[in-house]
């Protein structure tokens, strides 16, 4: 590789058939419950109110 080439070897999945390579956060899912609509404790998710969808209220201020 010479100095004018871009080193992009680390930008893609290492092994495309590796199931861990396909795991990434889906932006359409609620970041708190990850789309389940409920917390592990069984309570309705307070962020998405049980819908499992991302809402504009996430994030800090």
Question: Which descriptors apply to this entry?
Answer:
HSP_DnaJ_Cys-rich_dom_sf; 61 residues; Small CPxCG-related zinc finger protein; little secondary structure
Would you kindly provide a written description of the structure presented here, covering whatever features stand out?
- It is a single chain.
- With 61 residues, the chain is mostly loops.
- 0% of the residues lie in helices and 0% in strands.
- The mean pLDDT is 77.
Overall, the morphology is elongated
Number of helices: 0
What value does the Rg take, in angstroms? Answer: 18 Å
Question: Can you give the helix content as a percent range?
Answer: under 10%
Strand tally is: 0
Largest sheet: none
Structural class: little secondary structure
Poorly predicted runs of 5 or more residues: none
Average pLDDT rating? 77
- Oligomeric state of the chains? single chain
Terminal-residue CA separation? 45 Å
Q: Strand percentage, roughly? A: under 5%
InterPro entries: HSP_DnaJ_Cys-rich_dom_sf (IPR036410)
Protein name: Small CPxCG-related zinc finger protein
Region (Disordered): 1-25
SSE layout and pairings?
Blueprint: no helix or strand
């Amino acid at each position: 590789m010479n100095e004018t080439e871009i080193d992009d070897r680390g930008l893609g999945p290492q092994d495309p058939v590796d199931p861990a390579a396909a795991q990434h956060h889906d932006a359409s899912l609620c970041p708190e419950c990850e789309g389940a609509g409920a917390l592990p404790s069984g309570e309705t998710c307070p962020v998405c109110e049980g819908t499992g969808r991302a809402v504009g209220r996430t994030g800090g201020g």
